[in-house]
Amino acid sequence: VLSSQLPTEININHYNDPVKLLTSQAEFERFVQTSLSISGPTRERRGAPPRPAAVQLGDRLVEQPRRFEAYYASAREVFEANYVDGNRYIDVVHTERGFFSTLNRLHLASNTGPVWVAIIDAFSIALVVFSITGLLLWSRLTGPRLLAIGLASTTLLGAVYYAVLL
Q1: I need a surface site. Which of 42, 67, 69, 159 has the fewest CB within 10 A?
Q2: What is the pLDDT of residues 11-70, one digit of tens each?
């Protein structure tokens, strides 16, 4: 049974029911998804590389127990589940992100679907087009204003080009 505490910032829960013998990563992921009612695929976790299967201890090689990890993330929350072969529990870390963190994740298109990325791309292209057409309408395509827009655009493009090279 999962301990159900109202989330502060991070809750650490232990699954205390006896864990059946898990033989593969896919089986572990299915077990975690059904036990925690999580929908969607696992995500690639950023950070430390996976641990080695064997460790050198003195002059002999000691085999590590199998370890299964699953990472489920959305813009609003994160579940990390870890299981070491032989344990009778699964460590689950559940993090609920706050309002501003959720907005930031949506802004970065982090852990969002392709539909959200397409919407954000279309919106940013529209902003660029509206900015350019607004400047051209303001200049009325005449004399000094058009020259000022050309100079500012050239300077901006040069700065962006220089920034990309570094």
Answers
A1: 159
A2: 344 455 545 677 888 888 888 888 888 887 777 765 556 677 778 888 888 888 888 888
The DSSP line for 28-81 is: HHHHHHHHHT--S---PPPSSPPPPSEEEETTEEEEPPPEEEEEEE-SSEEEEE
Q: With CA atoms as reference, report the closest residue to 73 among 35, 46, 107.
A: 46
Nearest to 139 by CA among 157, 153, 125: 153
pTM score: 0.54
Residue from 24, 156, 11 nearest 78 by CA: 11
Asked whether 17 and 106 are in contact (CB, 8 A), the reply is: no
Buried b (16+ CB within 10 A) or exposed e, 139-163: beeeeeeeeebeeeeeeeeeeeeee
Specify whether the CB–CB gap between 66 and 83 falls below 8 A.
no
